[in-house]
Each structure stands twice: as C-alpha cells, then as structure tokens.
Amino acid sequence: MSPLRTLPYGLVFVAIACSPDGEPPQTTGNAMWFEGARLIVGDGGAPVESSAFLVEESTFTWVGRQGEREPPEGAARVDLRGKTVIPALIDAHQHIGLTNIKDGTSSTDNYTRENLIEHLERSAYHGVAATMSLGLEFDEALAFQLRDEVIPNAAHFLTSGRGIAGTPMAGPQQAYRLGIPRGALTEAEGRAAVRELHANNVDLVKVWVDDRGGTVPKVEPNVYRAIIDEAHARGMRVVAHLGTTSALEDAKDLLRAGIDGFAHTIRDRDIDEEYMALVRQYPEVWTIPNLPGSPVTMDDLPWLQETLPPFEIESLRRQIERREAAEPRGSNDLFQLQCRNLARNHDAGMRIGMGTDSGTSVAWTTHTELRDMVTCGLSPMEVIVAATRINADILGLDQLGMVAAGKSASFVVLDANPLEDIKTTHRISHVYLRGEEVDREALRAKWSRP
Q: What pLDDT does 328 receive?
C-alpha cells in the first residue's frame, strides 16, 4: 500500500511566529511556556525534537525549538522532556447522547443536556477537542444550543442536526434511533429539509443513501441531487452515508451528483477503475472510513477501566474471548475489504479523515480507529494528520488541527511516541483544550461514583 501524501517538512516553520524584531511576543496575562517535548505539529512533516511553545490565554503564540528563544518573563514553565505532543484529536463522525454509559441503556430518554455533556467530557478525557454528531439529534434544539457553548473539560460539540433519510423511519437499525432523521421521498421534501437545516446554521447535511438491506426506502438519486443542489446554493455541504449492498454504484452516482464527502468507505465490494477515475475527477471529495476492525484486546482492558463501568469491562472481556475462540486474528473479511478500499481511495487522491461512528462506545474508540487505519497500511503520521489537520479542514475548524502560532492551544501530551507505535495514543499524560488543562482525575472520580 502506498503511503498517504504528506506536506513537506519545511511547512512546520511556516507555523512558527515571532514579533518583527525576532523575539517572541510580549506576554500578557496568564502565559505558559512548554519545553522539551517531541512535537508532532500536525502538518505531516518530521517531528520537532526538543520543542518549545508559548501559550497565552487560549492560543499558541509562538512555536519553535528549545533554545531558539527564552521563555518570557513571568511565564509558567512546564517541563515536557520525554513526552510527545500532538494536536488535540477531532472525531468527524459520531452519534452521542443516546447511550447512558453508566447503566448501558440506549434510548431517546437518555438524550439530555447532562448526558451529552458527559459524552463531551469523555471525548476531552481521551484527547478529543471537537466531535461531529452526524444526523441523529433527537432533541435538535438542545443540540444547537450545545453547539454554541464552550464547556470546561469538554470537547466542542458540532452537529449536522437531524439528517435526511428516505423516510423518517429509515434511520439506523437500532429501534431507539428510528424516526429521528427527516424523511425525503420527493425532491420538494429534500429541498425543504435542507432549508430547515440552513435556518439553524447547519453547515454539513447528512443524507442516508441506504435501504437497510431492502427493509426501508432509500433516498433516490433525483432526491439526493435536489438535496445537494439546494445545499450548495446555500453554501452548505452534503455528506452521504453509504449502505452495504449497493455502496459502490451509489458512490459513483453521488460523485457525479456533486457530493462533498462520504461517512463510510465502500463496504459491499472492491473499488473498480470507474470509481477511481471519478475520485480523480473530484479531488476535493473526502471519506471517513469508520473501519470495522477488532477494536479491543485483553491489553486494552486496563486503560479502558479508567472510564468504563465494571459491567462494560466484563462484557468486553467476554467479547474478546468469543472472538478469539471463533476465528484467527486478521480473518475479518469485511475489515480486509474496507482496508483494500481505503488504500484505493488514497491511491486515487481522495482526502481521508478519521471518524469513529461511535454512539454506544463513546470517545475511547478514537484510539482504536487510529490503530485500525494503521493496520490497513497507513503510517502512524498519516493517521494523526487525518485525525487533526485533515479533519479540521473537513469540518471548517480553522483554529484546530495543528500546533501552530495563532491556533487554539488544544493539544495532547503523551507518555510514548505514537510514531513508533500508534497503539500508544491512549497513553495520555495531559490534555489541554483552549489553553486550559482538562481535569482528567476529577472526571475519573465522577465516573467511578455509583
């Protein structure tokens, strides 16, 4: 498999800023100087060994190498020798709020402000700065309210509102999710749904092009063309959920129709040359693979115990035992198919982001998705860029995605080097969002209470 293309190493220095006289800017207020870490900037270039960077309020104001500048007078100094710093991660596809992690129930009754914030806190705990909920907002008004808030110790909540399916009942298969999406069986219904979303300042429209194995009507080509046309006329974009029975042919037609991105890769068969040619024709289209790998091993249980209740750990343990008894590791045919198609998407020049499609398993699956992408042949650097800079670009998050002057000071301090082993991204020492350290200890204590 050929590697993802990355930006030249020299681009890291485009992000290094200083004042006109060559000195770092004068500090005002609460300033912090971080030094000594290996820094993975997020642009795909080689890491900066023995880095230094200055954080003032919520922003990086200088990024460089240790020794190039002295810390400003009065700045608090943080020694990060032996650590690795990466930009805070971004999950470009998930569905939070419907599952109660503490009791394991999944229901629309769980879609409350309190539960949504807990899920955003769990995301922050695992190093995620922003997370996009694609289309399953049971209480749309609540979702739009949270979208506009800055919540301490929590990831930024992004939402596409209630997405569009063939009928309101054509949502995901779990019964508690049925009825949430808007229905659109005609062009007029599709356009009206887009206008409703536009009135609520939605940028990214989710459309399900999936008949759920023939059990429900799917959004027909004339309807999704009307949806795409209406959205583009209003400066919005459209992302398509692809099914598992006719995904390749649907994807080809969606590309011709002007789709902006896919919430899954092709899952029914191997990508062919006609599809590859269409991807090359539309290079701005992106995909979020959502790989169905074997996400948990016995080695994962200790770090998952930090945030998951005992019954969930025991359930995962039983799943691992059953899976290992049933099949040799690596024999998952669906996973191997999607690995091949991920490689072909890359070879055709498609932009590849990262998303978990998680709802019942919240936040921690970010780390298993990263390692599944590496298992499929991408390098650790490539998947870090996918989950940071590329996702920031896909979601229009100009202040996230890189450790660079002028960006939001949202970053993760790791105890290990993920470029050597992507499985170590969960070995988190500290998380900073918007210049403030996330109180991970307090979050763990809260989640451990009955």
A: 57
pLDDT exceeds cutoff 70 at 289: yes
If asked whether residues 81 and 93 sit together in one domain, one would say: no
Structural domain contains residue 2: no
What is the 8-class DSSP label of residue 212? T
CB neighbours of residue 56 within 10 Å:
21
Residue 3 lies in a domain: no
Closest Cα to residue 392, out of 379, 381, 403? 403
d(CA 363, CA 366): 6
Kind plus residue range of the DSSP H or E element containing 313: helix 310-326
The amino acid at 120? L
Cα separation, 194 vs 236, whole angstroms: 9
DSSP 253-264: HHHHHT--EESS
pLDDT value for 3: 34
- Domain span holding position 133: 89-395
Same domain? 45 vs 97: no
Q: Cβ of 444: how many Cβ atoms within 10 Å?
A: 12
Q: Give the list of residues 6+ apart from residue 431 with CB closer than 8 angstroms, or none.
A: 88, 124, 125, 127, 411, 412, 413, 437, 438, 440
pLDDT band at 212 (very low <50, low <70, confident <90, very high): confident
The model's pTM is 0.91
| Of 80-89, 354-363, 369-378, minimum mean pLDDT range | 354-363
Q: Are residues 228 and 119 in the same domain?
A: yes
Q: Is residue 225 part of a domain?
A: yes
Rounded to the nearest 10 degrees, the angle between the axes of helix 333-347 and helix 365-375 is 70
